[in-house]
Amino acid sequence: MAYIYERTNTKSKTYFIHWYFGGKLYREKVGANKEAAKMRLGEITRKIELGQFSVHSDAPLFELIKHFREHLNAESHSEGYRERLGVMFRHYERYFDAKRIKNVSQVDYPLLDNYVTQRISVDGIAGKTVNMEIDLFKNLFDFAVKHKYRMDNPASDLKRKKVKKSKPRYFSNEEVELLLENSGKYETFFMVLLHTGLRASDAGNLRWSDIDLERGFINVTTQKTDESIVIPINDTLKKHLLDYGTDTPKLFPELDVDSKRQKVRKHIQGVLRGAGYDWNRAGCHTFRHTFASYLVINGASIYDVQKLLGHKSIIMTQVYAHLSENATRRAVDLITFDSKTGINRGLSAVQLRLKQA
User: Residue 10 — very low, low, confident or very high, per pLDDT cuts 50/70/90?
Assistant: First the structure.
């Protein structure tokens, strides 16, 4: 049995739909439109008749989110990824609370689309971040469908945003000099970022056991990709680390979580802003771009940079390729052939060595 229930107060009417399924009474608030209530009741009745109705249709939204997060926690994810998930879920929960969304059945496409619009227009977040949140919505409600919280995925029609690929912002020599002069307690942290290209999360969690000063390398498992990478230590960084001492297993215990590193970002932006430099896009990650950019500018191959940055795909590293003009020019200069003799001196020298061998 299914029916519409009308609740009236002095100002308005509110319609609810009631139905029985599996011997249990279900109730859903529809709103002030009776026709909408009729349509919703018809939809549920048809799903029951077709065997498509979910027994969890009245489940609290927080219950679904909790179940989904437990599922994610059981999987192997980096600490950095778990941290980002936590931030996104907090945004979700604040939005749903503000909209007074309590049950899984109340979530629909317009609600989620409005969330995306609000995050872009009000919060001003980047397209890349928006796409991460859209993907998480889709995964959340795919999970809801598989676990019978609902029959459809309201996020399936959300479209990922086109992300404008901009050239990486890196520090000039003058900016590096300025930041090191005003680094204060962050001097060694800045030096590590500049000379290793590590992400701030990985640098902040560096342990002395990750560093082999005698052989001259750092071996670290990155939080983002869970990949192990080996980075050589040059003489400048080696000398700085020898002079730097802590009595803790970590080099920077005060910078081992993102919330603590936000102070570093504000420090960097404050120094740059005070000197009249572009500061809006600057932060700890800019040191990583600086490391990669100067490697390419000074002739390092894109493949070497990929290895040092720990990129899984060369496509990620190719954002720095536009800086390699001088290196490609030097490479082309190596193939100069004499217009009269057709001789390439480099090739001739190699051939001569082979004959003498």
Answer: low
